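Notebook B, p. 112. Complex prediction, attempt 2.
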Amino acid sequence: MIIANWKMNGSKELIKEWIDFVSHNIEFNQAKECILCPPTCYLDYTGTLIKQSYNNVKLGSQHCDSALSAPLTGGINSQMLEDAGCEFVIIGHSEQRIHLKESNQILSDKLKSSIEMNLNPIFCVGESLQQKEANQTNDILAQQLDTLPSNLLHECIIAYEPVWAIGTGKNADISYIEEIHTFIKEKLKNKSDSTNYISVVYGGSVNLVNCKEIYSSDKVDGLLIGGASLDSDTFTKIYNIS
Ligand code: PGA
């Protein structure tokens, strides 16, 4: 799967151009889902455009609150996301963990509520530079993965995104990605009470130059792309060559 995470970027005009271009030009392969996560305010608009296009792009949200009903100004619940046509939701992105101070309990509640609404959570994990340098990567990842309820684990997609690689232009090299993905997959195997396959995707400065090498590893099940996903032509090329 190739996931475009637009973060706080875009406009109706850009979304329309992107969907027109990408849905016409990707060499679509059922086994390689193409997912667009626009800002929340454009979800409904994007969902409508997707339905009117070739339907080869799926809709994901960058945000979801855990409660289904609460007096929470600005809140968005998983039922609303499902109503807007979302199939995926990003949970636990490091930018939100840091800025919104999301605790493991909050993340676990978000996961449960999104799975109940049949959304596929893309659960992000990753170490900071400081943690990497202190040789704490595996401990940090293990703690983050422990947030996942073991009976729901097989419903999640895991995104390994080293914090130091996000938006910096410095992606992790392939041997490091493979080592960490192997660790994550092993940990999930021990923790899950199902034998269902759990996808682990990589994110962090993926671009046109490095995407093929990363995606072609048998340890990598997809790419989560921020900056390089905004341009429709670049994203289409990444999808097609990966
Ligand atoms: P980036 O962002 O591709 O711009 O590094 C990835 C992400 O944060 O999902």
